[in-house]
């Protein structure tokens, strides 16, 4: 699997033959990150089959939004972090982009896309009132804003995993609101939805980040 890179910096990794783990020279033992894939139904279905975390599908999609890619971690075993990207018309910007990451603690993929050095939010996060809410698998899900260099970054917990919702440009954060529903594409009842979803060209941001 020569294309696997560090989930936190996209740098090259030492393969597990020697130590049993994927190792980044900077970040130590990390999740190996696969190349980003276009959001074709068969790619989404493959990722959903091999994922230990939710594959968050915006359903219904906001009007005129498209799926623009999916990217997962995991060597030979299941992925512990999955990112799904969406692009659509912004309120003020011509184009806005949303990347939703589900991950197990320590994966660091969401933080890396947000441009943050630490893999997980601090424990003080939920001491403040939440900043917005979305719906995940039918549950109201509070999200807290985290300062990030170039996007509106929100993080919370859904289905027992971290969920990161990152929006570019920063002032298009309004796409995250009470009526945005995410469903887990791993669930059998949602897999028929993967066919016929509106998809766009692979997101360069999803493909090129995290840049470390
Ligand atoms: Zn790294």
Outline of this structure?
By secondary structure, the protein is mainly β.
Structure, described:
By secondary structure, the protein is mainly β. The protein has one domain. Helix content is 9%, strand content 31%. It is built from 3 helices and 13 strands. The chain has helices at residues 41-49, 109-114, 204-208, and strands at 5-6, 23-24, 28-29, 32-33, 56-58, 66-72, 81-88, 96-103, 132-136, 139-146, 152-158, 161-168, 181-184. The strands form 3 sheets. It has a 9-stranded mixed sheet with strand order 5-13-9-10-11-12-8-7-6. The longest helix is centred in the first third of the chain and has 9 residues, at 41-49. The chain is globular, with a radius of gyration of 16 Å. Zinc ion binds at residues 6, 8-9, 11, 24, 26-27, 30.
């Amino acid at each position: 699997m020569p294309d696997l890179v560090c989930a936190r910096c996209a740098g090259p990794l030492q393969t597990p033959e020697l130590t049993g783990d994927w190792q980044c020279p900077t970040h130590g033992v990390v999740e190996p990150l696969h190349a980003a894939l276009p959001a074709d139904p068969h790619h989404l279905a493959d990722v959903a089959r091999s994922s230990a975390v939710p594959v968050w599908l915006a359903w219904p999609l906001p009007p005129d939004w498209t799926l623009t890619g999916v990217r997962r971690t995991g060597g030979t075993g299941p992925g512990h972090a999955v990112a799904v990207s969406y692009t659509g018309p912004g309120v003020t910007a011509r184009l806005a982009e949303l990347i939703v990451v589900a991950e197990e603690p320590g994966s660091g993929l969401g933080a890396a896309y947000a441009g943050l050095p630490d893999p997980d939010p601090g424990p003080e996060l939920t001491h403040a009132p939440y900043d917005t809410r979305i719906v995940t698998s039918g549950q109201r899900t509070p999200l807290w804003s985290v300062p990030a260099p170039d996007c509106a970054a929100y993080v919370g917990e859904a289905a027992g995993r971290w969920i990161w919702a990152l929006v570019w440009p920063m002032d298009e954060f309004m796409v995250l609101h009470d009526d945005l529903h995410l469903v887990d594409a791993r669930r059998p009842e949602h897999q028929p939805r993967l066919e016929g979803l509106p998809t766009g060209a692979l997101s360069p941001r999803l493909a090129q980040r995290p840049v470390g």
